Amino acid sequence: MSNAEQTEVREIEKLKDVYSDLAQIPIVLSGRITGDKDGIISVTSTWANPALGGLNKKATTQRVSVLSKSEDGIIKLINTQTLPLSNLDFQSIAYSPSDSRLVQLYTMLEGKEKKQYMRVVDTVNHLELLSVELTGQSKYGIIYGLGAAPFGCISFSHGEGHVLYCAEKKIKSSGYFDVDLDCDNEEKIVESNVGEKFTLTESWGENNFDVKNPVLCMVNISTGQVTVVDGLPSGVSPSYAVWTPDDKGFIFFGLEGKPFRLGKAGCTNRPGKLYYYDLKSAESIVIGDTAAYEHPTFTPDGKILVFRRRAADEPHNATVELCSLSWPFDGSSPRIVVPIVTASSDSKSFPGLSFVQQTTRPWSADGKHIILSTAWRETLELVSINIKTGEVSRLTNHGRTLGSWSMLDVRGDLILSSVSAPNRPPQILIGSLPFRGQQV
């Protein structure tokens, strides 16, 4: 081996060592404050890092932390336990509103076939309430996990008796020479979509290549009965689906599939309408005209629907406006809470909402403030927004910059977030929502 080849080999070994060191640093996938009672706080978080040793997947672990909270508000860590989650491929994990139930969507390899299962657990009494194979359902195809955002959704109803999720619509199609094709029955010929068997169907691209014709589904936890939601608008792909406060329907952003299904995972400017689906009448009602919408959510009292909106014909990841709508829907127009910012006056002023991160539980204890993570020049910051006045308060990086902050959960006035920087590995931090003027 020549000197040049030996040098090249040594450099490759150095790169391998550097990658091995960096791969050991886990990143935060999710976090939840699962308990806050009698001065004891419990936090569950999921972490992942590339699995070394030839495993072509991520190594996932779960951390369970117990903390104490004194009367003066000081929070201290008591203990953290790390549990491996390497035996199952978890696609989604979601908690019920009361944190007393947990639903898991996971994939298991049986032979050469991948099968998807849903499991619901009573976390208080430590009981398994439901375990059902979803792959065998003839009503739909693959179920989208939370990695298929914004289409992947999995959430409990407020009564915690049903779980809403999104799957690929199963469309039957036949070839002209299929032996089971009944050519004498015109009705069945039409139903079989003859000639469409090998037609290319567009997907929503990027991270959503499996998402082509999404449909909303729900499962009854007591009976295991699966229902596919009928009456969705033709050619519309539901995304960001959430239950209404009375569990009588859903809110969703219906993306228009015509003329093209362009990428959505990283594109905030795709057109569609905001819909309310009524379960009793099986009707989809337009409550927001054509625009690009994000993350509808209800205030804790269920009286206001809050969402983000922007024009659908503008640049990618431009700033968005925060809007509110009285609920139940009375036909009124949305009220703009935080307007779109086209230019900020100086380096310290609010630059507008963009690259927003929002959790499924984003509300403060008083129900008047929504806590978000948003781009603030070179970092991500946590902000508190008063939905009545529109006042935006920055909560982080006052005095010194610790890094970029990402939202994980809000419970009462406790905020769970992760912070990281190029010279700072991800860490999970918990703190209390400060009083006015006490941001740090």
Automatic annotation (TrEMBL):
Family label: Belongs to the peptidase S9C family.
Protein's name according to its UniProt entry: Acylamino-acid-releasing enzyme N-terminal domain-containing protein
Residue ranges of domain Acylamino-acid-releasing enzyme N-terminal in the record: 45-433
Organism: Pristionchus entomophagus
Biological classification of the source: Eukaryota, Metazoa, Ecdysozoa, Nematoda, Chromadorea
Gene3D superfamilies, sorted: TolB, C-terminal domain
Signal sequence segment: none
Keywords, comma-separated and alphabetical: Hydrolase
Domain of life of the native organism: Eukaryota
GO molecular function term, any single one: serine-type endopeptidase activity
Pfam families with a match to the protein in the record: APEH_N
InterPro entries xrefs: 6-blade_b-propeller_TolB-like, AARE_N
UniProt keyword Methyltransferase, yes or no: no
